[in-house]
Each structure stands twice: as C-alpha cells, then as structure tokens.
C-alpha cells in the first residue's frame, strides 16, 4: 500500500491524487498522479528508503534529484518537487504520456528522417547537460520518453556524473552504463571523458533507431565487449552513405578522434532540418563554470522548503542553521576563527570559506560554510559535527550566533 502524507483523504500530502502504477523496480515505484489544485498530470516516483540496498544507491538517488533540479530544457523530464516522510521519498516529475522510445522502436525501425529528428532532440538535451558539467552515462532508448507531441524527453539521471567527480587526471573512473551502449574506454577501466562516453551512447541509439537492432550484440557478454572494444559492427544496406559516415564518427573506438558535440552540430547529415529549441533559461549559462564558492541555481532551490534535500536520505538531521547575511565571506571566517581560538577550540580551515571548530576530546564540534550569494550577500551554513548536541546549542545560542549575526 502506498504510504501517504499526513493529510485527510487519499491525497499525498493533500496535494496529489495518486492513480495507477506506471512501473516499479527493486526499491522504487512510479505512479500516475494528479495535482488537485491545478489538475496537472504528474508522475510520482516513490522511493522506499528502507529498501535501498546500500549507501551508494542512496547517493545515486540524491544525485538524480539534485541533477534534475538543475535542469530546465524542453527535451528533459522536469522535476517539480520532492516530498518526504520518515520512510519514503516522493519525487514529483513531469508525466510523459507517450512511453519509452524503446517500446516504439521495438515495433519497427524508424525512417532516416524520424531517426534524425529524435537524434537532434537528444543531442540538444545532452549538449545542454554537458554545458552544465553533467554527463548522463546511461543513455539508451529505455531512458528516452516520448510526449504527446512526439517529442523526446531524457530521463533517469541516477548514473549521471557531475564535474566534481572528475579526478585529477581529468577523467571519470566509475564503471557504469548498460552493456550494449557502453563506450569501449569504460571497459578499459583507465578513466574516460564523460562527454565522449555520452556521444558514443548517442551513436548506438541512432543506429538502433534506423537499423532496428543493436550494432554490438552477442549472447556472450565478453564476446559483445570484444566487439565494442574493436568497433566491430555493420550498417544495414538501407542506411544512406551520409548516415553511415556519420555513425562511423560517433562509434569511433578512439575517444580522442571521436566526433565531439560541437562537430556534431556542424555535420551536414545532422543539420538537415535542424532547429535549436527556444525556451526560457532559468539560470546563467556559465553556471557550471562558476567558482565553487558561488551558488548555482540548484543550491538556491535547495535552500527553499520545497527542495531542501538535507533530511531526505537520513533518518536523523544533524542540528544546524542556514541564514543570509550582508557581510564579506573573509570577515565571517575571521570571526569564526577568532571565536574558536578564544574558546580554546581546535580550528581547522576548509575549502575557500569554511571552518571547523572542534571542542572537548572530539565529541563536540561545528562546521561553518560560507557561500557567495550575490556581490553583497552570503549564505552561512552551520552544522553540528560532534555527538554533543547540548554543547552545540549552547555555543550557537550564546556565542556563535551573536558573533556572526550581531545579536
């Protein structure tokens, strides 16, 4: 039975009328629902925290929520809000009526023009993600949905990587993806470029749409991996020479020479009938390149009650505060350091504008992070790091808050 929020009747949190089951997995179910106020159809992913098999899976759930919160693109499934109870997380998303692209292509291969249309929409969405430092890493027809108008929507960001997961060598190192769509460099386990991996998967998807079958397939998994690694595939006879040439550039086993997204956008086969979608951009285009001390759109959203993820995945909250001040980050950090030294606490600097204060024998502590909101405003976040809650409350009420806020 679906656990609902504390509200009268059958409505989830008094907001959503839950309908039929759309799909289910090991730890999550997706339901059709209706917003009682607006009448809008939505999809609600219900995640059972107790069934999450590992901390890694919890991390994937949190990552998917945080990534989807950053994205606003016509060919990407929209996240509306996140709700939670003690045992469940409810992810309220755009309802995409047309189902999976996989189901449609399973009924018969697409024409070259239709394949190109969906591929253009896919590249538009993928390029948007890459420009924000997000790499999907599990692109496949099952993760591509179709709306009422026959337009494509990218979903399922559970395996996505963001730029802060890139190691010092500039590469990602997590082994992930679906076997038939995985790039050869992932199999080598030597690190890979997330953008080039997504381009490879897009190439496999394009091949499947027009051919009606996979370019690399074998009942023996290792044999299939060998074909992927060596780039061993054949295009069907009905595929045009221009499309064959284009696919060979997408499925180049060498990521260095593989076609890039910028080159895709200039390719004559791709450009036929291409129109870049126009939509309202809700965050600055250079957001992904912003300094780590600056807040991006998701950070701002997460400070609001609707999408504060701080307590969604943990049974208990660390005691903490978050507030906005008109003060320089340097001045605030200096105040915290002076307070810590005056109280004879161990002072440890973190990142650019972060400080940790450690009290008696390590059982009491507090971490302070300062984020630049605008040129004049900052967000200050304090969090208890030790087990002594009473110590934290007394420090916060009597010394830390007056030192920072001035009252």
TrEMBL record:
Its EC number is 2.7.11.1. SUPFAM superfamilies: Protein kinase-like (PK-like) (SSF56112). ATP binds at residue 45. Pfam families: NAF, Pkinase. The keyword ATP-binding applies. It catalyses: L-threonyl-[protein] + ATP = O-phospho-L-threonyl-[protein] + ADP + H(+); L-seryl-[protein] + ATP = O-phospho-L-seryl-[protein] + ADP + H(+). Keywords: ATP-binding, Kinase, Manganese, Nucleotide-binding, Serine/threonine-protein kinase, Transferase. GO terms for biological process: signal transduction. CDD domains: CIPK_C (cd12195). One of its GO terms (molecular function) is ATP binding. Residues 290-314 form the NAF domain. Residues 16-270 form the Protein kinase domain. Belongs to the protein kinase superfamily. CAMK Ser/Thr protein kinase family. SNF1 subfamily. This is non-specific serine/threonine protein kinase. It comes from Gossypium raimondii (Peruvian cotton). The lineage of its organism: Eukaryota, Viridiplantae, Streptophyta, Embryophyta, Tracheophyta.
């Amino acid at each position: 039975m679906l656990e609902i929020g504390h509200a009268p009747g059958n409505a989830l949190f008094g907001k959503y009328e839950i309908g039929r089951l759309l799909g289910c997995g090991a730890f999550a179910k997706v339901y059709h629902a209706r917003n009682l106020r607006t009448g809008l159809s939505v999809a609600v992913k219900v995640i059972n925290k107790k069934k999450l098999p590992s901390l890694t899976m919890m991390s994937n759930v949190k990552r998917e929520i945080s990534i989807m919160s950053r994205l606003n693109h016509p060919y990407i499934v929209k996240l509306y809000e996140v709700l939670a109870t003690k045992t469940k997380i409810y992810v309220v998303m755009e309802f995409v009526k047309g189902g999976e692209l996989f189901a449609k292509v399973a009924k018969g291969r697409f024409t070259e023009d239709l394949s190109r249309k969906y591929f253009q929409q896919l590249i538009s969405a993928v390029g948007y993600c890459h420009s924000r430092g997000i790499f999907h890493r599990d692109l496949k027809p099952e993760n591509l949905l179709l709306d009422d108008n026959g337009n494509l929507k990218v979903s399922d960001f559970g395996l996505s990587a963001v730029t802060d997961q890139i190691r010092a060598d500039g590469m990602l190192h997590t082994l992930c993806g679906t076997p038939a769509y995985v790039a050869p460099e992932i199999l080598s386990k030597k690190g890979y470029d997330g953008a080039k991996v997504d381009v490879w998967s897009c190439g496999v998807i394009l091949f499947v749409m027009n051919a009606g079958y996979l370019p690399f397939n074998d009942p023996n998994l290792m044999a299939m991996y060998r074909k992927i690694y060596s780039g061993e595939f054949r295009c069907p006879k009905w595929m045009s020479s221009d499309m064959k040439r284009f696919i060979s550039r997408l499925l180049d086993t060498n990521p260095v020479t593989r076609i890039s997204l910028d080159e895709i956008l200039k390719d004559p086969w791709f450009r036929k009938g291409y129109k870049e979608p126009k939509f309202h951009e809700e965050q600055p285009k250079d957001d992904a390149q912003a300094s780590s001390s600056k807040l991006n759109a998701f950070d701002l959203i997460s400070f609001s009650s609707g999408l504060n993820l701080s307590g969604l995945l943990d049974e208990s909250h660390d005691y903490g505060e978050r507030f906005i001040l008109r003060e320089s980050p340097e001045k605030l950090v200096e105040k915290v350091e002076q307070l810590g030294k005056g109280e004879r606490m161990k002072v440890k600097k973190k990142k650019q504008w972060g400080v940790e204060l450690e009290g008696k024998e390590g059982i009491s502590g507090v971490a302070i992070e300062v984020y630049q909101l605008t040129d004049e405003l900052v967000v200050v976040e304090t969090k208890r790091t030790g087990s002594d809650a009473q110590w934290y409350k007394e420090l916060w009420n009597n010394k830390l808050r007056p030192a920072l806020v001035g009252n």
